[in-house]
Amino acid sequence: MKKFLILASFIFLISGQSFSFDFKKDNLYPINDKNGGGYINKDGSILIEQKYNFAYAFVDNFAIVQAKNNKYGIIDRNGNVVIDFQYDELTNLSENFVFYKESNKFGCIDILNKSKSKAIYDKTKKFKEGLAAVLVDDKWGFINKKGEIVIKPQYFAVSNFSEGLAAVSHSAYKTSGYINKKGKTVILFKDNSLEPKEFYKGLAPVITENDKACSYINKRGKTVLDNKKIYPANIYCGNFYEGLSVFYIDNNPRKITTGYINKKGKIKYSMLFPIPKTVSEGEFSAFEHFSSNMAQFTTDYKTGYINRKFQIVIPPVYEFARDFTGDLAYVKFENKEGYINKKGQWIWQKEREGM
Q1: Residue pair 337/353 in contact by the 8 Å Cβ criterion
Q2: Is 325 exposed, middle or buried (0-12, 13-18, 19+ CB in 10 A)?
Q3: For the segment 4-30, what is each residue's pLDDT rounded down to a tens digit?
Q4: Across-strand partners of 121?
């Protein structure tokens, strides 16, 4: 695929639908408009009525919602209230836990057991693999699901745990390495590698300070895919989602090559963009990781979607777009916003806010 065919116009098709759903299997998509917050399925059928001030996305079996009293609580996929509406703020919902805010401090709630810890943390991250990062006196550490500190707060910054490891930093812009769940450093960076990400399927991308280029390491810290095997001067690469990773290469100050590589470092698709003087690299062109076999691409401030064959399936017409989650993606187009399906058809829409 060497060229994109940019369509000059975009036709929205809306047809009658027949609805059937399974609460346990169907994705639930939050909708929020003048009627309130609720949830629809992939066909646009309202599964949980719009009786809330605001509805947030489901994380597994639970979602944060704001009630008419402006307090926050938790509902399950059947719309049952499982955590009463009594909190001024709920955040970082994951693994059947959520953090609540009280007197500018955070504590965690066990949704299944209806128990909670004291609010003593300054900031928190989501639980992942049974541990959550917490900030205490400007230092990050980790707690378990009993609310016990298992890794002492001592780091300038941390990532979530992924595949048993978390990236940690002792100072700004310089990542020390990765620790295991006992707090032991198992990968140490001698050259102060920058911007490491979480491990995914055994690999993590890192950018080293000495050449500012991206490589991939395994969980033993060994470089298994060197940036020179990908492409010289590779300035960015992400995790491999659905077998492909996004990369960016600076060709010169006004051109950039971007596309996808596979786990062998082979470029599966790329495009060379001349960058207009009026915009920056990030504003003009971008590819995102694949999600539900679709990926966003942005050119000249407009976003569309490509499929796994790198074919344009939804032209770049949207001023704002999110990844597909299952069958739907949230977009903003001219004077409306809402969910589209993988054919670009509107499933649910409302008048665009802020217009």
Answers
A1: yes
A2: middle
A3: 322 222 222 222 233 333 444 579 999
A4: 106
Q: How far apart are CA 328 and CA 39, in angstroms?
A: 13
The span from the CA of 85 to the CA of 89, in Å, is 10
Among the listed residues 36, 42, 116, the one whose alpha carbon sits nearest the alpha carbon of residue 84: 116
Q: What is the DSSP letter of 284?
A: H
The DSSP annotation for 301-349 comes to TEEEEE-TTS-EEEEEEESEE---BTTBEEEEETTEEEEE-TTS-EEEE
Backbone angles phi, psi at 229, to 5 degrees: -80, -20
Which pLDDT tens digit goes with each residue over 92-131? 999 999 999 999 999 999 999 999 999 999 999 999 999 9
| DSSP 8-class letter at 183 | S
Q: How far apart are CA 276 and CA 326, in angstroms?
A: 35
Backbone angles phi, psi at 200, to 5 degrees: -145, 115
230 φ, ψ (degrees, to nearest 5): -80, -60
Contact status, residue 328 vs residue 347, Cβ threshold 8 Å: yes
Compute the distance between CA of residue 29 and CA of residue 48 in angstroms, rounded to an integer.
10
**Closest among 26, 25, 60 to 43, alpha carbons compared:** 26
Residue with tokens 């947030």: 56
Q: Are 65 and 73 in contact (CB under 8 A)?
A: yes
